[in-house]
Amino acid sequence: IGIAEFANANFFSEDTLAGTDAQGRRLPFPRREDLIRRRDIAPLSPRIRAYLEKPAGQGLVTKFALAECRLQGRAALPPYPCVDEAVWDETAAHMLPRAVGYARAVLDYFFRGQIGVQTSFMRAGLAFIQISNLTDEEMSGVFEVFARPGAPLSGEGRERSALVNGGAVATIGPRRSVLLPITYLQAEPTPFHMLVFRGRIGLEDDAVAAKTFAVHHVVIAQTAHTADLNETCTLESSSNRDDTLKSERQACSWRSIRQQTDGELITSRSTLIKRMSVSAPFPGVELLLDGLPASAGVWQRQGEEGNPRSFSVRWSRPTGTATLPTLTIELGDGSVSMARIYGTIAASAEASKGYHYSTNPPSYVYAKRAARVDVASPRVAGLTSYRAVSVGGYPNPTNIVTDRFGVPGLVEALIVSEAPDYPQYQQRWTDHANLRWTVPPGGTERVLEPYQTELAALSYGPPPRVPIEAVFERDYRQGELDFLRTFVTPEPPPSTLTVVGRRPGGS
């Protein structure tokens, strides 16, 4: 019940001495007929005065509910009901603590809005914040995020860092949660942030609510991948049945046998890494954190140690895009981050010579060399991806073709292209071609003899040894850089991943 109801039911005042209100209506409580007469010394005089006590069973028990006073010098007149110092002292003893409590409740009422922040994260290139209305009343208003420079109880100096829902009004029902997009203003990242609500709560306009929260986030930045390559070379020759086509070919290929990917871990200032693990569909994968091996590929927090800052993943197995290791990081708030670890590079090269005798297309003798570097772009749906910047030292894309002879297949070409998930570098060129556009007198046999003689004298090898390397650039999704600069770090991590394949002997 309200404080006025409590006072009216248990205490008398000058306006209620007669047991009625100002309009003459009878007040049900306190009842005069139930009071018990007693005699005590009045507080401001040594005289005995009659007091009326409210007994148990009639609400609050009061020793001095009402007094009987007499006019000075009119002892012959009957006493009249009054409230003196004793009555007011007892009234104050009960009512002042309640008044303080009710005053505090007024503040609680005007600041009764309670909101919660369940999570803040990136999804499909957009950042979201999940907000809960912890009250039993509907909230409708504007939400904003302010950066907070220190601990939750530190001083002022906050700066608005993000708008929620684009600054538009958002409505959350009682005990409900909503997921709203964030628009960044890119304030300096801080350990803590404050979500502030301004709007309507229930029937009250211009209400305010606030909640301090922290954004827990880790960036897995892969910076380098090195692969030791196995070399296989072959020499082969071929010809057709009538000897009008003949070729010799030297070929080499290089495939990964031992691989290592290195990177950095960048966390927001409030983020605690709880557990890290690496997994792969093959045995023998190793995890190193800050240069120290993690037993069985798993690191578990033991106490108050700092977060790992760097990582390496090693394995000895040829891999394709479908069999790459995966790094999983569990944060202290229960969220999980994952990254597919980069690991694939291969190369091949060849040198060949031959002749082709026909009337259409024209006949020719050739010597040519070609090289190719294949790298798989680390792009996995839902995970961080990288875009190929260059392969084999040439920018992506590159397409330079020179037709020296007007004969299909006899061209100088330098091509860097990128099919889905498979950037590749190709380089092929022709050193020599001797074209014969018509069949000389004497027929095929007389033509083939000089072709064979020229072919035998033609130098064409060895296969070229081009750089086996690629450079990738981190493909930040839309809004991801703004998210990092607002909540994680003013300088996002290195954006390049350098991939190098080493031939036997270190070349």
Taking all Cα atoms into account, the compactness measure Rg is: 44 Å
Mean pLDDT: 84
Q: Detail the poorly predicted runs.
A: none
Biggest sheet character: 14 strands, mixed
- Secondary structure tally, helices: 4
Tell me, briefly, the overall form.
Answer: rod-shaped
Structure description:
Helices cover 11% and strands 47% of the residues. 27% of the residues are buried. It is rod-shaped and about 160 Å long. The protein has 507 residues and is mostly beta strands. Strands 13, 14, 16, 17, 19, 22, 23, 24, 25, 26, 27, 28, 29 and 30 form a 14-stranded mixed sheet that branches. Strands 5, 6, 7, 8, 9, 10, 11 and 12 form an eight-stranded antiparallel sheet that branches. Strand 13 (218-239) and strand 14 form a beta hairpin.
Write the layout of secondary structure elements.
Layout: H1 3-10, E1 36-41, E2 48-54, E3 62-69, E4 80-82, H2 85-110, E5 115-123, E6 126-133, E7 139-148, E8 159-164, E9 170-172, E10 177-184, E11 192-201, E12 204-213, E13 218-239, E14 245-267, E15 273-279, E16 286-289, E17 292-293, E18 298-300, E19 310-315, E20 326-331, E21 336-340, E22 345-356, E23 363-375, E24 386-391, E25 394-395, E26 398-402, E27 412-419, E28 422-436, H3 443-457, E29 469-474, H4 480-487, E30 496-502
Parallel strand pairs: 13-30
Antiparallel strand pairs: 1-2, 2-3, 3-4, 5-6, 6-10, 7-8, 7-9, 7-11, 8-10, 11-12, 13-14, 14-19, 14-22, 15-18, 15-20, 16-17, 16-19, 20-21, 22-23, 23-28, 24-25, 24-29, 26-27, 27-28, 29-30
